[in-house]
Amino acid sequence: MSDYSRFPLPTDTTHIRIESRQYKIFKFDLGEGVARWKVAVGTAIVVPWFVLLGLILRVPPLMGHGKGALLYLFPAVIMTWAALRPDAGGRPRYALWLDRFRYWLRRTTPMIDNPISRPTPGQPFIVSASWVVLDLNRSRRIRRHLRNRIEEDEVAA
């Protein structure tokens, strides 16, 4: 057998993508099925939208002869559709939104501490130095090191 492949695959790509799908919701058949990660993203968008409208803003779903249902469904469907569209790199757009949100959160805290970013000044500290005078004649280690360096220089020359 040779290691020549008729259709070589690059090693940095995904060769298989295993994806679970939802084929039924209660007794309603979804046909080919919907990818479960898409259902999870849609739920993560729709549920907070419904909670915002219903519990916080107190908007009744049937206000204005049933037009409240449009207020509940239309923005949630548009946001879910926009989140699941692929961006220029092929990733879902919600991944780009999450990246931008994480960058925005991280931007507020300074990376390098400086006096301007600190509301109260830090503790004062004192820098001290101590000097040691070495007696080259009394230190065996230093003499040995110097002797070895001189010998290496003589051999190299």
Question: What does it look like?
Answer:
The chain has 157 residues and is mostly helical. It has a two-stranded antiparallel ribbon with strand order 1-2. It is elongated, with a radius of gyration of 34 Å.
Structural descriptors:
5 helices; mainly alpha; 157 residues; 47% helix
Question: How would the global form be characterised?
Answer: elongated
What is the H/E order?
A: EEHHHHH
- Summed over residues and divided by their number, the pLDDT gives a mean of 79
Query: What separation lies between the terminal Cα atoms?
Result: 58 Å
Which percent bin holds the helix content?
A: 40-55%
Question: What structural category do the secondary elements indicate?
Answer: mainly alpha
Name the strands of the widest sheet in spatial order. Answer: 1-2
Beta percentage is 5-15%
Concise synopsis of the structure shown:
This protein is mostly helical.
Strand and helix map with partners:
Elements: E1 21-25, E2 28-35, H1 36-56, H2 63-66, H3 68-84, H4 93-107, H5 140-156
Helix pairs in contact: 1-3
